[in-house]
Amino acid sequence: MTIQKREEKIAILQGTLDLLILRVLIFGPRHGQGIARTIQIQSEETLLIDHGSLYPALQRLETRGLISAEWGVSDNNRKARFYTLTKAGRKQLEGQARQWNRMSKAIHRILETNPDTGSR
Fold first, then answer.
1. Residue 98: Cβ within 10 Å count
2. Alpha-carbon gap, residue 98 to 107, rounded angstroms
3. How many whole angstroms separate alpha carbon 64 and alpha carbon 98?
């Protein structure tokens, strides 16, 4: 799984894309392209989700019952699958967000430590 950062591809931690998708869907139903666009916009153009990563993640989340999908018509009048966060997905999002915040704070503390003194 990769996320494009500007023009370079970087590997992301397992489950990060799933977390981002669940977070976007808390705002309401979206089709795949809308999810990718929202992530791109909210990350200030830093994270660009490729379709080869997005659609397998959506299928995985749907199989696990964390999102549901139904066919509808997009803003440009095309048939599209719209994904919605389920109750189980909301619970999963809360737990994963807590873990992610805890981990990112720990990593931040390490990165901010002065290598010479061992303190911040």
1. 10
2. 14
3. 20
φ, ψ at 47 (rounded to 5°): -105, 120
Closest CA to 97 of 18, 3, 19, 15: 19
CA atoms within 13 A on the CB side of 82: 13
Q: Is 70 exceeded by the pLDDT of residue 3? A: no
Q: What pLDDT, on a 0 to 100 scale, did the predictor assign at position 114?
A: 79
Record the pTM: 0.83
Structure tokens given for 24: 């976007």
Contact (Cβ atoms closer than 8 angstroms) between residue 35 and residue 24: yes
CATH architecture designation of domain 2-112: Orthogonal Bundle (1.10)
Q: Tokens for 10?
A: 């970087």
Cα–Cα distance measured from residue 41 to residue 65, given in angstroms and rounded to the nearest whole number: 27
